[in-house]
Amino acid sequence: MNRSLPNVPAVLAVLTVVLVLFAAKATSGASRELPVPVAAPVVDATAISAAEDTAVFAGGCFWGVEAVFEHVKGVKSAVSGYAGGNAGTPSYEQVSSGDTGHAESVQVIYDPAQVSYGKLLQIFFSVAHDPTQLNRQGPDRGTQYRSEIFYNSPQQQQVAESYIEQLTTAKTFSRPIVTKVEKLRGFFRAEEYHQDYLAQHPNQPYIVINDQPKVAALKKQFPDIYRN
User: Fold this and answer.
1) Is 67 marked active-site?
2) Which residue out of 20, 24, 61, 159 is catalytically annotated?
3) In the chain, pLDDT over 70 holds for what percent of residues?
């Protein structure tokens, strides 16, 4: 789905909202899980002496996932990009075709002394996306919108897999978690117009409907770690 909408007259903007809502309803017979509080991981990464570490998540459109993590204390940067595929220098158009194997992803660089990897996972599963939607999120469909965690160390792999097992055993969601866990083979930064997209286009219909609620849910569910 092409989400990059130009500036349009008010009437067309209203029509766009209607079309986005219709697409969100029509893409699947299953409704989206509403953001729900999930328990913190029982198994978390041990603190490291390094000043920063990196986590990479795929959870549908990278605009909303990036915006969520940009509002987390301890996160130094959140960058939209592509991961998980074979194309060495993927473009948005290539990835959108669904043929590259890449997923729209977000690289999160964070300070482990301020926020743990487990806490990032808790936010990812709580408000950043719906981990029960297979190869889609909201109105967007295709493997490029899949739910996936790309680990860069055995410890991250252990924490991620243990957390999925924990949430599954606890029956946190009404449907099965479909999130994949895969070793990070490379991260490719997306085009500049995708970076900080929510901050640059806060009133775009797609953003208002699909992504602003995620940031609001973060503020409500994690007030101690939320930052403006």
Assistant:
1) no
2) 61
3) 84
Query: Within 10 Å of residue 221's Cβ, how many Cβ atoms?
Result: 17
How far is it, in rounded angstroms, from Cα 156 to Cα 149? 9
The domain spans of the chain are 10-221
Cα separation, 225 vs 214, whole angstroms: 15
Phi first, then psi, for residue 148 (nearest 5°) are: -155, 145
**For 160-180, what is each residue's pLDDT tens digit?**
999 999 999 999 999 999 999
CA neighbor of 123 nearest in space, from 186, 92, 78: 78
Q: Which residue intervals of the chain are DSSP H helices?
A: 10-26, 62-70, 92-96, 117-123, 154-169, 197-200, 205-206, 212-221
* Euclidean distance between CA atoms 83 and 185, whole angstroms: 7
Of all residues in the chain, the percent with pLDDT exceeding 90 is 79
> pTM, whole model, 2 decimals?
0.87
Rounded Cα–Cα distance for residues 55 and 106 (Å): 8
φ/ψ of 137, rounded to 5, equals -150, 120
At 161, which amino acid appears? E
According to CATH, the superfamily of the domain at 10-221 is Peptide methionine sulphoxide reductase MsrA (3.30.1060.10)
